Protein 1
Amino acid sequence: MQNDVILSLFEQWLTASYRASGTVKLRMRYVRKLARRVQLTLATEDHIEQALAETRELSAETRHSILASWRLFYRWAVARRYVLVSPTLLIEQIPVAARMPRVVPDAVIQRSILNATPRDRALVLLGRYACLRLTEIATLHMRDRRGEVLLIRGKGDKERYVYVNDPLALALDVLEERLPRGHYFPGETDGHLHPQSVHKIIKRVTGWNPHALRHAGATAAYRGTGDLRAVQEMLGHASLSTTQRYLHLDDDARRRVAAATVIQPGSMLAA
């Protein structure tokens, strides 16, 4: 089967599986990248190894996305019997080293929103205080707010509730007073800003990658509560291991962990 045919079938399946449009585009981007190197239905482990070697200098997050896309494609292709000899096993075994997440310092956030427009302030706070993804911010509609709660449609069209704290509520209130009822961030794409436009605005206002705001918010939430499961739910992650990669522990937290391993006086006697 030719690459263009199987790519079209795979994209059709992704869309039919109710995955978010951004997810479909991301998966297709990386599978097409592989298709430019190999005949997908005839790829061997050597072909995959060569393609993976070219991703070595990319960030850990990007490599995770690439491998996840290739794994998903080959699982689908094997189930459909479009692939006779699958390199899936090799892809499943490839590790991607974890990197310490970069988090935006609180002082940077406070300075950046001090003179920001109401729209830009809300964009930054939704990334930092609600820990929303770019697409979730861009598509946020006023009907999705129910008082102190936001109904968020995330990856895979999965819904979750995210509570709004006071500073974020105030930022959203200002937009609701100034705009007609509709999207919080009107634009020319489907009535709302494009996620890439949101990325550029947040980067311009804060000087940081918007994903670092999500890391910072997740870290602050975990430090304040110690509830990893609640943080996972807020972020919309399918697994706790993904959430753990978002957390940045400072030296004080590491010292507390080390101190907690000390055997307390009297515990040996009790044993």
Protein 2
Amino acid sequence: MGSPLVLLDVDGVLNPFERPHRGYKRHHCSPNGMPFKLWLNPGHGRSLLELTESSGAELAWASYWCDNANTWIAPRIGLPELPFVPIPHFPGIEEGRTLGAWKARHVAAWTEGRPFVWFEDEPDATECIAGEPDVAEHLLVEIDPMTGLTDEHLAAAATWLRALAR
């Protein structure tokens, strides 16, 4: 078993869907050549780095942004370039998959048996990741996509990671 992972989604987690509260800044970007507006809190980077440093965990992206998160998100919140789960574009509802199930499949495979915390806003992700074969011990921190990542979410992850280390 390797060191634990802390996996980050972007939209709905670091970029809330409602206009966020104090501390967030508006950014314009163009991943894949498409204009996009983001609300990001520069304090999240520092908090996430503190979480991983205090727990010996490794931080990685688990988002459809994939490596684009390193270009458009990481520098704006003070994170270094991070590894990322290669999540391909969602194939569509017609194949009977939900977004949570699609992402969970790729996350479970990428973690290769390492324990992980996953900050995710897909409503069915908890059920889907638990149903993946051979998935490691994990905590899915369910984020309300309207408000995004909070100190309470970070505290829950820190508590779980401390217990894991015992």
Protein 3
Amino acid sequence: MNKLLSALVIASGFLSGVSVAADIEQGVMKDENNYYGLEKAQSNIALNAPFSKQYEDMSAESEITPFGPARGISYFEIGLVRSANGGDQTITKSAFSTGTDHGGSYLYVYAWQVGYGNPNNATMNGQSKSAALSEARCGSDLHRCRAGETVTGWLYGWDFSGQQNGQVKVSSNSVASPFGNWSDSLYIN
């Protein structure tokens, strides 16, 4: 049983990097143009200040090995909703719903993830969608990676164009310790 569990853990860790193997090697960015899914211009999202400070405080307390094994997820939250009707709305950590009415010709939901994991399908009003954007991020502020930087997290985006309002649920499975499923939800007005 232990051998089977170990094999599954190793396989899931291997599979998590398959889609970006050409750009990331041993956790270090090789090619800065690593955009998968939604247009590059649509993924130019910055973390809000409270998150950046919180993550800096967390990383200051832990020992970081630049080329050590990848860390599992330590943070996963919806950070932005972008729509034709509502524009960009940054979502605070304690928000249960958007304060702006969204919808229109496009509706995107973005989530920040610190650590390595595999995003699951997101759901909204019974519709299930896979991540349309998966972008490696670096540093304590999760900025766009430059060649030679160590990947510390990811920005994921889901395309719910055609929806007007409803509950969105997103999640990701950690591929390293601490193992587990991380999730977040938000009601979009």
Protein 4
Amino acid sequence: MIVITGATGQLGSRIVDQVLQRMAATELGVSVTDVTKAADLEARGVRVRRGDFTDPATLTHAFEGADQVLVISAAIRGAGAVDANLAAIDAAVAAGARRILYTSHQGAAKDSLFPPMITHARTEQHLAATGVPWLALRNGFYSSTLTYYLDQALTSGILAVPADAPVSWTGHDDLATAAATLLTTSSAFSGPTPPLTASSTLDFAAVAAIASEITGREIRHVVTDDEEWVASAVERGLPRIAAEFTLGMFRAARRGEFAATDPTLEKLTGHSSETVRTMLERTL
């Protein structure tokens, strides 16, 4: 049996859908914090059990009988994210899983300027020490993140962000297909995968230009000072801790942490990766 955590989230739900195209529902289990949100999966024959990374006792039941477990990284900020991920990995080991997969990130590094990358690096280190065959999916930065910044720009006509650098923005659907492929077929990969990214990179100036073409109105890219951007975000209602957290992404991008591209994702999916333009045409 394959068990997938976070199966009702943006990435997890897509992975589940892809896996169900490749294997019988009775061979799949999901671990979710709210089982009512997975009622449709249960109706299809998927085993649905409650599993909460912050309540490790629940994971014993959720992971029971698992041959493989896909741990989708906890959506928790701060030190708690590491503890939650490690609890899930330890539970998978205790359940007797013969292989553990984890949704990491292309920028995973202990010295990253963006805190989630440090979480991924520490989680990968723990995985490697378990002695169980493992795979860290080094996913590219989600392209859907861009819509957060463009929402206000569509109203004001100005995309005001800190200085950035090219990022290999990557689509959820492509990453889900790759994960499903790696879960359901034999793979030569072991440990961290190559970067699972789109084939090209874009900075925010290019994103603004694309959004302008799609919407038919000018969206002007403006570079703001880091602290001025944080102050502006706080004025708009964003908690300071969240604004400073987000600033870390820009700082890391400027250091080139998200600039790598690699053909592995397209080899796994069997098609060209979704472009930012395609994503924005669908969502704007």
